[in-house]
Amino acid sequence: MSVKPYRSMLYVPGDKPRALEKARTLGADAVILDLEDAVAPEHKEDARSNVQAALKENWPCPVLVRVNGLGTRWEHQDREMALLAGVDGLVLPKVEDARTVQDLHLRVPLWAMIETPAGVLNAAAIAAVPGVAGLLVGANDLARALRSRPHPERLPLLHALSAVVLSARAAGKLPIDAVFNDVRDPEGFARECEQGRTLGFAGKTVIHPAQVEAANAAFGVTDAQAQAARELLDAWAQARQEGKSVTTHAGALVEQMHADGAAEHLALWEAAQR
């Protein structure tokens, strides 16, 4: 089983050349060069040039570009630049229906941002579109659209968060959790990562270098967990050789689904070692 981890996806503003340079060294599983929300209108053209130059460099991870949204005056130039420069994928903001994505006919994977009520309600159809690699939650815009109040446990957003996970997983795509805004609160970030992992997210978008390692740890597999997965798979292989469809290991019932889960964990751990 070959798995590419997306435990951390780091947003980097396109109008910050030094940040673009540093991003290659931070250990994120993917980097999102941002031309949208992080860049003021008067800096859009410079940001596009900076991102174009950055895409010519060698990167140790997949590099995506978050383009400006459909209907903006920058959208076509953003997409053309990124595609011609050889980007690994595009991040499209505020996706609200599947037809929008289908009509783009892109040649690279698309990551659709779900950040409006309509996007949440149509997330299953969006995720099912061929070429969509995953769904990214945009919680700030979503909370604003819902008129919800901030809550440390994200209670007003739990239904939407779970809907994104359910939609992505049903289509065999990756759900990625939203950013955590307060870079001065590592404890809060760790709690939100744990919540996201518990809900079923595959990783988290991050906005600061200090958040990368914590996200990798929260959505990753430890050495101890990898060893436990190996032992469970060994026990399952022995059981199958004996003609059993159910066995026990470490005091727990083991069936095919448990072996599949262990194989996935081990594949994630192996991928992170590369």
Question: Which features characterize this protein?
Answer:
45% helix, 10 strands, 16% strand, 8-stranded parallel barrel, alpha/beta, 2 domains, TIM Barrel, 274 residues, globular
So what's the overall shape? globular
Q: Using the CA coordinates, give the radius of gyration.
A: 20 Å
CATH A-level architecture of the largest domain = Alpha-Beta Barrel
- The neighbouring-strand order within the major sheet is 1-2-3-4-5-6-7-8
Fraction in helix: 40-55%
Q: What are the segments in which pLDDT stays under 50 over at least 5 consecutive residues?
A: none
Find the CATH topology of the largest domain: TIM Barrel
Cofactor: Mg(2+)
GO molecular function: lyase activity
Protein name: HpcH/HpaI aldolase/citrate lyase family protein
Keywords: Lyase, Magnesium, Metal-binding
Write the layout of secondary structure elements.
Layout: E1 8-13, H1 17-23, E2 30-34, H2 44-54, E3 63-66, H3 75-84, E4 89-92, H4 98-102, E5 110-114, H5 117-121, H6 123-127, E6 132-137, H7 139-146, H8 158-170, E7 174-177, H9 186-199, E8 203-206, H10 210-218, H11 223-241, E9 247-249, E10 252-254, H12 256-273
Parallel strand pairs: 1-2, 1-8, 2-3, 3-4, 4-5, 5-6, 6-7, 7-8
Antiparallel strand pairs: 9-10
Helix pairs in contact: 9-10, 11-12
Pfam family, one: HpcH_HpaI
Domain HpcH/HpaI aldolase/citrate lyase: 7-209
Keywords: Lyase, Magnesium, Metal-binding
